[in-house]
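Input chain follows. Return structure tokens only.
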Amino acid sequence: MDKKRIIEYLEYAAISYYESIPENANVKFYNIKDCNLDVEFIVKRSKDELLIAFRGTDSLCDALTDIKFWKKKIP
């Protein structure tokens, strides 16, 4: 992976923390909050790539969500 690509990915990771997503970012923002889950992430789709960037832990509810997260096999 080249330096330009790494910087692009870091920029998308930073966008996941924005209060409002810039229109030219070409991403969709998802915010899933209920009594058992607190997750925010962005998704960017292109012809040959799917990029998903999750916002990090920034609340007690986020921390509880992190603790409950387990890998699942997808057939």
